[in-house]
Specification:
about 270 residues; alpha+beta; 4 helices
Length: about 270
């Protein structure tokens, strides 16, 4: 059995005792005709009870935890201490749906999933997404991490500490790899907060299996203290089919005006 433990401080461990059986937000991925396909972010398990729709743009809040700013697709509070988040960051990736429907193992034994930045971090300037300057985004899973940068050729890491096991081991259809994302306000330190605003990062999933093609690039739009109208303008500028956009957490009142604005814009067109 493969065990993944993410321990930062004892307080974090204690705070999450109330959700010991939850694994938090995971982005469902499948293999379609030998290509990785990104689907909906599920706020918590189970991750394999349904096949979700394909998505490639995810809009989520950036929130503070223990002095650092993280992406947080699941904004539920801890069951024992409502002042703390149940899951302080995410999403990771859940890839066991094929096992749930009795199909063959899509991600083959001995292979590794890999996550990489496709481009550097960008920030919304009111009319376009431009280079975010000193601000960087760090993604990490256990002891493995990578930082966004203007040059991203080597900004990638394996999602697993060991190759994918036969039959996905004891987790079966619920197998997943947790990933967290935090901002480095000065490009170095998590203690330096990023300026308020809207940030954009491009990512891609790959496999070491030569028969498995990489996913299409997908994007996270990360919002720190920005108005709904500003978010709507930023999302619209990316010209992504609304059917491929997911707002998380959902349903959420904070996103309703954004969705309504984009719908009205589409009708006018």
């Amino acid at each position: 059995m493969r065990v993944r433990v993410f321990v930062f401080v004892l307080a974090t461990f204690v705070a999450n005792l109330g959700v010991a059986f939850g694994h938090g937000p995971q982005l469902q991925i499948t293999s379609d005709a030998g290509r990785i396909v990104t689907r909906e972010i599920q706020r918590d398990g189970p991750y394999s009870d349904r096949l979700t729709d394909a998505k490639n743009l995810y809009v989520m809040p950036a929130l503070e935890y223990l002095g650092a700013w993280y992406t947080r697709p699941n904004t539920e509070s801890d069951a024992l201490d409502p002042s703390l988040p149940a899951f302080y960051s995410g999403p990771g990736f859940a890839y066991g749906y094929d096992q749930a429907v009795g199909g063959r193992q899509a991600f083959v034994e001995g292979s590794l999933l890999q996550l990489q930045f496709v481009s550097g971090l960008k920030a919304w300037n009111g009319s376009a997404f431009v280079d975010a300057g000193d601000v960087q985004l760090e993604m990490f899973s256990g002891a493995r991490s990578a930082r966004s940068a203007d040059s991203v050729a080597s900004a990638a890491f394996d999602l697993s500490t060991s190759p994918i096991a036969s039959g996905y081991g004891s987790e079966g259809a619920e197998i997943h790899n947790t990933v967290r994302y935090r901002f480095l306000g000065d490009g170095v330190a998590t203690s330096v907060p990023p300026p308020d605003g809207i940030y954009l990062i491009d990512l891609q999933l790959l496999s070491t299996d030569p028969a498995m093609a990489a996913s299409d690039p997908f994007q996270y739009v990360m919002v720190k203290n920005a108005s709904a109208m500003t978010v709507a303008d930023a999302v619209e500028s990316l010209q992504v089919d609304p059917a491929l956009v997911q707002y998380v957490p959902e349903p959420a009142a904070c996103w309703m005006s954004v969705v309504a604005f984009l719908a009205l814009t589409a009708i006018r067109r």
